[in-house]
Amino acid sequence: MNHTRTTALVALAATGLLLAGCSSSDPTPAKPADAADPGTGSATVAAGRADATEAFATIAGSVKSAKLSGTVTAENDGNHLLGRPGQYTSKITFTDRRIKSADTQGLEPGDVGYGGSVETFANPDDAATRATYIQAVTKNIPALIEYDFVHGTNVIRVSHFLTPVQAKEYDAAGGTLR
Fold first, then answer.
1. Whole-structure pTM value
2. How does the average pLDDT of the chain come out, rounded?
3. Are 158 and 146 in contact (CB under 8 A)?
4. For residue 123, is pLDDT > 80?
């Protein structure tokens, strides 16, 4: 076989493989390697990216007043976003002991007002889009205002009951995330 014919056959085979990968008779979309398992709400770690639990462990190493309070699953996600296209692949909630209990009266369990949450996304663009959305929705409702910090694929949401200086601790700790 000559070199030109071999190159043409390899190119034809590669084109066939690409086309086969773009169409499928299975109507169920493929689950990305880092997508959340809807049953557990946890995500596998892909390409060195941490899930929300691991990201929070890093943050809590610097912000000593933060304590993990819950892991969001498909069953308990009040936003119904876990694992949906373009949404978080994992999420945790946390409390901050500097927030007075009197300030949190009437809040639902897991509310950002108790401390905050970490939402992890498949890519940085989805994380930035989420933070922009949250800020747009909450900016004119004082009871819902919060601090939001985007670090890579993570959105760190922090209670407005913390002072700006206290909230910046979460931003600084988030700066160590990938």
1. 0.73
2. 79
3. yes
4. yes
Instruction: Please report which confidence band the pLDDT of residue 177 belongs to, taking 50, 70 and 90 as the band edges.
Output: confident
Two tokens, residue 20: 């086969």
Q: What is the DSSP string of the chain?
A: --HHHHHHHHHHHHHHHHHHHH--S--SPPPPTT-B-TTT--B--BTTB--HHHHHHHHHHH-TTEEEEEE--TTT-TT--TTSTTS-SEEEEEEETTS-GGGGTTPPTT-GGGEEEEEE-SSHHHHHHHHHHHHHHHTT-GGG-EEEEEETTEEEEEETTS-HHHHHHHHHHHTT--
